[in-house]
């Protein structure tokens, strides 16, 4: 049977009759049919067979299948009317019904095996005339008191209120109280509260850490709820039984059915509170998918809220402290189920990201990625981190992007998402830096050696100094030219000395082989193409007069005297000279500024 057949058969006239009983419209709904079809097809074969067993005319006991359909319709009604019904929530409803049906079948098999074991295989049936009992002349009605009494004993218990060891149902191993009593060190009353219903089955509770957290919150809520009722002279158990007695059943119903329905009705009180605790844990663990938490008997929902629901909600809203933080295994499973769960924490951290806390937030993002190693969208975390860190920490941004490349290479589908051009310009100030990154990225793709790629990131932003090779021949030629100039000047000056001696004045001029000293900026002649203003020329003169080195404080004082900014003045000089030198003229060295003497000689005109 496929999903379409199941939807059309199960949600046909019986579903319409159920809606009519509540005074609702009964028009066909293609959206409902499509949702049920997809949910049914998503079940495995064994679960599909269980669900197919509730269809009318499939061979099951008519009354049993009818009650199962009514439970299914009741569970579907609220999300259907509120338009919150989805394939996921429909599957959850199916799983609960399947769990109930399997439990019924299991109990029936156990009962059959117990009866069979009690009958001796070699028993001989006495068929003599003395063994025949005449029942034709006397009416002997069947007495159901034994059944009712046994059911009452199983419900209330002889050893104490909410004792998990009372009643046949309470001893079943699949109930949470029995399963976790020893593990969590539960008291008899705590185990009894958990044994009031069969173990809910869904993907969230299948994670043990989530199940234990829900159990702890549920028990915390039950204690608070019981304490609040005791202040009014009531108890939770008594109120639940009084609420159970409100259930109205047909007067001609089978006594066994009456007992079963009343127990199920009371069980739903505790199960509804448990579901609300589960939703609170889901919210606290940032698991967006929620389960239905309305009381399943719609006719009694308002009374339930008045008796238990409103107080339960109030307690849960103030009970986050009772929920344990998820451990690593729980985080891994939650992130695997909810692939976008990481976004809430990530967005919160990134909103406060700045240069001062970049290292701290990078550590948090790294731990977040480690908790998402089983998440199929892990690469998106690295990619978004790379974009966010580009404005505050270039190296960290590149590291996160290399992580993205590495993770993308190991994913089922390689997306190869590129960083935007604006981010690239922000990360790489020059073509050399971009090329260095491309080399590292290509090596990572070829070798898949992530540690080596991460180690090489620092080389991208290393300050590279140009190596200068001096031409000895050119230097010697300049020296020769300079010597000839000095000799020529000496001849000229000697002639002037002779003329001046006749006037009675004696002047001595000493010349050196070094470059002629320039006393002021007005005598400095710069090469063609340098457009330096007076402030820039004066600072260069100041450097020249101090052996091409000035303390940072002196440069600051000079800039302030000209009403300029120090960095702006230095950078403007370097920018003007860059085309001529293909390098910077003035560099910062610790607490000083150094002017390259060789470059200075290149920008002044010696002739």
Automatic annotation (TrEMBL):
It comes from the Bacteria. Residues 455-602 form the TerB-C domain. This is TerB-C domain-containing protein. It comes from Chitinophaga agrisoli.
